[in-house]
Amino acid sequence: MCNPESTRERRPIALFPLGQIVATPGALEALDRYAINAMDLIRRHQSGDWGNVPPGDAEENLRSVENGWRILSSYAISDDQNLWIITEADRSVTTLLLPEEY
To answer: Which end of the chain is more exposed for a tag (fewer CB within 10 A), N or C?
Structure first.
């Protein structure tokens, strides 16, 4: 007999609420250009995989989760392009954007 737990995909644990999810035009165009599923990056962000932020920023994100501060992740989506995901301190909105759109 098959165990449903063993066949079910394990979902990452959500560390914080995202609020409304929005994206800038540049982020949408880049996600489309590189055929990247935005929800995969959002799940990583929400589960504590901050991408390629420096170690000090990763530590700050952990404190931000605990204290209700802004959270920033950065993901390489091509050899020369990163995409940022920022969840605001009040958890009302999470924004996908390119660094140059900040």
So the answer is: N
pTM metric for this prediction: 0.88
In the block, residue with structure tokens 């063993």 = 6
Q: Which amino acid is at 57?
A: D
CA distance linking residue 18 with residue 38, whole number of Å: 14
User: Phi and psi for 36 in degrees, rounded to 5?
Assistant: -105, 135
Low-confidence ranges of the chain (pLDDT < 50): 1-8
Q: Give the tokens for residue 100.
A: 């140059």
DSSP E strands in 2-102: the ranges are 20-23, 71-78, 81-87, 93-97
Listed in sequence order, the residues at least 6 apart from 100 whose beta carbon sits closer than 8 Å to its beta carbon are: 26
Q: In this structure, which amino acid lies at residue 37?
A: N
The mean pLDDT of the chain is: 92
At 55, the amino acid letter reads: P
